[in-house]
Amino acid sequence: MTDWDERYRTGDTPWEKGGSAPPLLELLERAGVECFGAGPVLVPGCGLGHDVRALAERGVTVVGLDLSELAIERARAFQVAGGESYEPGDFLDPAWRVGRSFTAVWEHTCFCAIDPKRRGCYAAGAAGLLGEGGMLTGVFFLTPHDPGEERPGPPFGTTVEELDSWFSPWFERVEGWVPQRAYPGRKGREWVGLFRKRAQAGVAGMAGSR
To answer: CA–CA separation, 149 vs 153, rounded Å?
Structure first.
């Protein structure tokens, strides 16, 4: 199991780019904050909170969550952008999800960091946190490594077909595209997806999260 606090402590954080994800900014320009609903919005695996603050400064109430208490401590040290808050916790832990509700989830670095065997838990967990019409939006890492340089993750790659397979029991895909804006070295390797929670999917989402 990855010791995320240790990686932050030693600076072994290649995912930390010092700013919010370019595909998130592209999404906001393309669809506006309306695609996140009235809030609150959850950002699992938020790291130092750059994406959290990008949403908060646009008036969104947003919660940043991370397994690393050190990452959360550092996120809280940034100047407040708006209605954001941070807390340490495990998005995949059913106990953490009890009594919580969000209008959207913004995914950036959580899905690619977890063991691919737990992706079904991710999909069910997201569904359990969202009401009917709630949005699971995110940028997903398709090809984290160059051809011939594949190595064990994280990050773990995925495909659009796999994402559809994991999310379709609870969500319908509204839109998806390869973003034009990306961190250096990531252009063409990511995919933005917008998934809306289906009607009558709540019971299945909670059952699948156990």
So the answer is: 12
Output the pTM of the full model: 0.90
Q: CA-based angle 15:16:19, to the nearest 5?
A: 125
Closest CA to 23 of 148, 142, 158, 179: 179
Task: Give me the residue spans of the domains in the chain.
Answer: 18-208
User: Which residues have CB under 8 Å from 47's CB, separation 6+?
Assistant: 13, 15, 16, 66, 68, 71, 75, 109
Give me the CATH code for the 18-208 domain, please: 3.40.50.150
Q: In which order are the strands placed within the sheet that holds 84-88? A: 84-88, 62-66, 41-44, 102-107, 130-141, 190-197, 171-177
Neighbours of 96 (CB within 10 A): 16
Mean pLDDT in residue range 61-75: 97
For tokens 């940034």, the residue is 78
Q: Which residues pair with 137 in a beta bridge?
A: 106, 194
Beta bridge partners of 141: 190
